[in-house]
């Protein structure tokens, strides 16, 4: 999987794993990382599924619903790739913070919900659950910051709330921020994510 690794100035900080939205690439979220944790190491991926030329992390159907087979396959590949790259670049895969937006947030959320060895910390901008039946292993110790727009035309408020409930019902520590905005990512959300990240190191 195409990726970019940028060593951090402070290796004691949790590394960021950047997962872009539809149509992005491995450089799309670097400015967000500069705000959230400017001194942390960065591992940023480019989704390798093409939707009419737009990069995605997994496929979806014409009506917008998830291709669950693709989601499962690509989630497994992503989790394994992070573990392999942790060895290559000498960081602890257990300490990474997934930072995902939209499509990238959805695959990160799916990893948390389906793979106990995946992300223990995540920042999810505008995410929703897949709708598939999930395992029921405990997420105690997993910490998630999630933002949602009540007027988001792509990720409904109901969908975002369903994800929050799915995480909390399995004992994850979830902090949430709701805005009046649509699907666009706002500076308020990014700065709140920064504050959450900083608090994880207090």
Could you list some keywords that capture this structure?
202 residues; alpha/beta; Rossmann fold; seven-stranded mixed beta sheet; two-stranded antiparallel ribbon; 5 helices; Carboxylesterase; hydrolase activity; AB_hydrolase_fold; Dienelactn_hydro
Plain-language structure description:
With 202 residues, the protein is of the alpha/beta class. It has one domain (3-199): 3-Layer(aba) Sandwich (Rossmann fold). The chain contains five helices and nine strands; from the N terminus they run ββαβββαβαββαβα. It has a seven-stranded mixed β-sheet, sandwiched between helices. The protein has a two-stranded antiparallel ribbon with strand order 4-5. It starts with a strand and ends with a helix.
């Amino acid at each position: 999987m195409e990726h970019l690794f940028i060593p951090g100035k402070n290796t004691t900080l949790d590394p960021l794993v950047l997962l872009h939205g539809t149509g992005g690439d491995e450089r799309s979220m670097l400015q967000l990382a500069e705000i959230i944790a400017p001194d942390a190491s960065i591992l940023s991926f480019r989704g390798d599924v093409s939707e009419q030329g737009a990069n995605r992390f997994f496929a979806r159907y014409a009506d917008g619903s998830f291709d669950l087979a693709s989601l499962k396959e690509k989630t497994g590949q992503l989790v394994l790739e992070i573990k392999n790259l942790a060895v290559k670049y000498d960081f602890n895969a257990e300490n990474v913070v997934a930072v995902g937006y939209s499509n990238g947030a959805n695959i990160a959320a799916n990893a948390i919900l389906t793979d106990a060895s995946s992300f223990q910390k995540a920042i999810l901008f505008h995410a929703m659950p897949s709708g598939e039946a999930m395992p029921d292993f405990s997420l105690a110790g997993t910490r998630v910051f999630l933002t949602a727009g009540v007027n988001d035309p792509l990720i409904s408020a109901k969908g975002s709330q369903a994800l929050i409930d799915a995480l909390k019902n399995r004992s994850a520590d979830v902090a949430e921020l709701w805005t009046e905005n649509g699907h666009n990512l706002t500076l308020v959300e990014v700065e709140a994510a920064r504050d959450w990240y900083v608090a994880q190191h207090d």
